[in-house]
């Protein structure tokens, strides 16, 4: 029983290890997967079909040190950035138009209903006809893959804003652009970020898929082109290294870039969960 | 020579508001003078919130005029700050201090001065120490205090409140009513307050406007006396006006 004379046990502050626990769990899962891969690779014992984890890491290291892998990744990311930026800009214009007028709203709903289910890669043959073999065709299909996902999410985000918040903005004397930028845009941010994440995933996989068809130019291509090239040369460990790079970049963008953005905005404001 | 009457802050001239075939308000005439606390009271559907929305400029009258200092009201503006009932009226991406300073910042007040005035208001509404808190970490009553502080920061000609305490628990509501009266004594704002509670109307108002429904129109205008016993009598009269069938109980 508590008699009031004994000091209470000191309250343990949140320890540093607690913050690292999710990361440790993730690392544990990755370790198990790597081990399974290694064992399976050794059991198959055929480099032409399934190289082991250690072989893949060695190839990854070799390609990184030679500078080829970073160059290919940079080439992919450069094209991706152009397409992503173009997609975001077009989405912003469409959403602003949709917020400003009922015709714009109907236009956006119709366009997203038409184009969102259409795989961007299906437009590649047409893009090749219009823009030829090269970066412009890739940028075109990436723009298409980003645009509709982002526009759809942002638009539904704006429509879900509580009417009170809009009235508060009007009460403060905000109208038109000012209201859109100062009140509606931050209020719709959770949906916008969700759209950005989906758009990123679509863009990344569309790019790699498109690169499997051709490189950005004859001398160097992106990661997808590297994968395709090495398969033709039967350098399967380097194919795996290329795939590993695709996965790693995806994880970093999702886990670091978007996570940080969310922590600094919607998490801090209590707009998410 | 007769002394010139003080010009009203707010004047409604034969204001009617129709939604399609439904008449929400019919030919309402009303003046509010500076420093007054006018309470609009009436049953659901009597158009009291509609009337407040028209004063706020959120709703254009179908007929008649709403005049603020003699000028027709055309749109919402920070000269008529509205405090809503909903807790989500604070901007979630701004801290308590930033929310309160925001009307000042929009009016072009320098950052440092806006922050100082926000801090002063934070102290006055009893939220010292919560300047840097984000709204989602506050209780309902605290959010309401921030909303009131933000409205006062704009130094509006009119403070409009639409059933602000209806969603609060009874104890918090009682405390907020007392604090609103205290803030009125400090700031001397002109208040138009909507409620469906007779008790609240008598406690907060200096004048009470009773609205009757279908269509919404003014049924009675009553001055609130100072003496507590007279106030009880007023409550009884309001009960008879609003609930005629139960008045004899």
TrEMBL record, chain A:
Gene3D superfamilies: MetI-like. The chain crosses the membrane at residues 48-67, 79-100, 107-131, 179-203, 239-258. It comes from the Bacteria. Residues 73-262 form the ABC transmembrane type-1 domain. It is found in: Cell membrane. It is a multi-pass membrane protein. The keyword Membrane applies. Keywords: Cell membrane, Membrane, Transmembrane, Transmembrane helix, Transport. InterPro entries: MetI-like, MetI-like_sf. Belongs to the binding-protein-dependent transport system permease family. This is ABC transporter permease subunit. It comes from Roseococcus pinisoli.
């Amino acid at each position: 029983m508590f008699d009031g004379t004994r000091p209470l046990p000191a309250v343990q502050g949140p320890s540093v290890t607690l913050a690292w626990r999710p990361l440790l769990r993730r690392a544990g899962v990755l370790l198990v997967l790597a081990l399974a891969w290694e064992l399976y690779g050794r059991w198959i014992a055929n480099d032409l079909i399934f190289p082991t984890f250690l072989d893949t890491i060695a190839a990854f290291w070799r390609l990184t040190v030679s500078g080829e892998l970073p160059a290919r990744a940079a080439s992919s990311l450069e094209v991706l950035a152009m397409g992503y930026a173009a997609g975001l800009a077009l989405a912003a214009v469409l959403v602003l138009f949709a917020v400003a007028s009922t015709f714009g709203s109907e236009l956006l709903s119709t366009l997203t209903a038409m184009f969102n289910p259409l795989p961007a890669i299906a437009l590649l043959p047409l893009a090749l006809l219009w823009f030829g073999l090269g970066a412009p065709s890739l940028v075109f299909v990436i723009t298409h893959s980003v645009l509709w996902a982002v526009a759809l999410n942002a638009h539904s985000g704006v429509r879900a804003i509580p009417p009170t918040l809009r009235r508060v903005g009007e009460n403060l004397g905000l109208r038109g652009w000012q209201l859109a930028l100062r009140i509606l845009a931050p209020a719709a941010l959770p949906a916008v970020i969700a759209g950005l994440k989906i758009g990123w995933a679509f863009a990344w996989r569309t790019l790699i898929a498109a690169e499997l068809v051709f490189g950005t130019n004859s001398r160097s291509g992106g990661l997808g082109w590297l994968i395709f090239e090495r398969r033709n040369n039967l350098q399967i460990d380097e194919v795996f290294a290329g795939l590993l790079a695709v996965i790693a970049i995806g994880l970093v963008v999702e886990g670091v870039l978007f996570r940080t953005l969310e922590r600094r905005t919607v998490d801090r404001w209590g707009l998410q969960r | 020579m007769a002394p010139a009457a003080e010009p009203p802050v707010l004047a409604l001239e034969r204001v009617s508001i129709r939604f399609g075939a439904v008449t929400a308000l019919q030919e309402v005439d009303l003046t509010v003078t500076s420093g007054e606390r006018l309470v609009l009271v009436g049953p659901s559907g009597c158009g009291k919130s509609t009337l407040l929305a028209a004063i706020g400029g959120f709703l254009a009258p179908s007929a008649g005029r709403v005049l603020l200092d003699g000028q027709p009201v055309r749109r919402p503006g920070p000269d008529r700050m509205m405090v809503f009932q909903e807790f989500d009226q604070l901007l979630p991406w701004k801290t308590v201090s930033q929310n309160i300073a925001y009307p000042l910042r929009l009016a072009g007040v320098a950052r440092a001065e806006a922050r100082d005035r926000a801090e002063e208001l934070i102290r006055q509404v009893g939220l010292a120490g919560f300047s840097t808190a984000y709204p989602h970490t506050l209780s309902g009553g605290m959010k309401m205090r921030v909303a009131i502080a933000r409205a006062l920061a704009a130094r509006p000609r009119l403070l409009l409140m639409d059933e602000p305490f209806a969603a609060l628990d009874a104890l918090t509501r009682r405390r907020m009513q007392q604090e609103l009266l205290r803030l009125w004594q400090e700031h001397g704002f002109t208040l138009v307050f909507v409620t469906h509670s007779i008790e609240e109307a008598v406690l907060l108002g200096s004048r009470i406007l009773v609205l009757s429904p279908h269509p919404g129109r003014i049924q009675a205008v009553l001055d609130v006396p100072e003496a507590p016993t007279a106030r009880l009598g007023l409550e009884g009269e309001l009960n008879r006006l609003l609930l005629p069938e139960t008045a004899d109980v």
